[in-house]
Design brief:
9 strands, 270 residues, alpha/beta, two-stranded antiparallel sheet, 13 helices
Length: 270
């Protein structure tokens, strides 16, 4: 089995049907389809049963969050690769999977595509990934990465996929390859887009988990992305150079800014 497509859902019957329809109409056939429902009460179960002959595995039961549901799907999967399409996401064309697997040659562990909401870097390093996250809806991920490196972190509400990609490129040196196409459409108004305070809180924890002793420098880099140093920092893949630039910035900033302005500038992330 080449691919496992995993859809999680909770009380989004209309979105779920849209997702399922985009999957079952694919001209590519070497995949299994897994649906994990969080004990929905809005008619989602009826939608799942409607397409049950097209779904290889489904369950409807309580879960503890998005990533708990996604991990359930991974544990049921048998495909070489995983693709996560949450309810409401949909594959853009009937030939989307056929086209992408005509390109995938096995030379990378994660293939990432363009998306409609953000600029996606054509080549990836850790600094680019910090500033320009890739989406799981547009990524084909080798399943063995979860088995060997760990499943999604269920302590997070919205940021575990971000942590997963950062961990793979930073800690495990996983090979990413860009494919110049948009694989799927996903709603841009979910909790990760609208709950900014939660996103910022979890992002700091992600940096701490992934980067450990240099996490403070990474946080500084992230929040100072709009400074005159941003372009320089983006090009510095070496953490020693990154630390040097940030120390230089703080040294200069303390002398150029009035003390009050300087403290106000930093208080939002200290």
């Amino acid at each position: 089995m080449k691919l496992s497509i995993i859809t999680i859902n909770k009380n989004n019957a209309a979105g779920l049907e849209k997702t399922i329809q985009s999957v079952v109409c694919q001209t590519y056939s070497d995949f299994e389809y897994i649906v994990i429902d969080g004990a929905s009460v809005d008619g989602s179960l009826e939608i799942i049963k409607k397409y049950a002959d097209k779904i290889n595995y489904w369950v409807s039961e309580t879960d503890t969050g998005i990533y708990n549901a996604m991990n359930k799907g991974i544990r049921q999967a048998i495909g070489e690769y995983c693709l996560f399409l949450n309810s409401g996401d949909y594959l853009i064309e009937n030939n989307s999977l056929k086209y992408i697997f005509s390109i995938i040659t096995g030379d990378a562990d994660i293939y990432y595509c363009d998306c409609l909401y953000a600029m996606i870097p054509k080549t990836l390093n850790v600094n680019k990934l910090i500033q320009s996250p890739i989406s799981h809806q547009n990524s084909i991920i080798k399943r063995h990465l979860f088995i060997e490196h760990g499943y999604y972190n269920e302590e997070f509400i919205i940021s575990s996929d971000y942590e997963f990609f950062l961990k793979e490129i930073w800690k495990f040196k996983t090979n990413f390859r860009h494919i110049p196409m948009t694989l799927s459409f996903y709603e841009g108004h979910g909790i990760s887009a609208t709950n900014i305070s939660l996103r910022e809180k979890e992002r700091k924890l992600v940096f701490s988990n992934v980067f450990n002793e240099i996490s403070d420098s990474i946080i500084e880099y992230f929040y100072f992305n709009k400074t005159i140093y941003a372009d320089i920092i983006r090009k510095c893949g070496n953490s020693l150079i990154l630390n040097f630039i940030l120390r230089a910035y703080r040294f200069i900033a303390k002398r150029l800014f009035r003390k009050k302005d300087y403290l106000e500038l930093w208080e939002h992330f200290e």
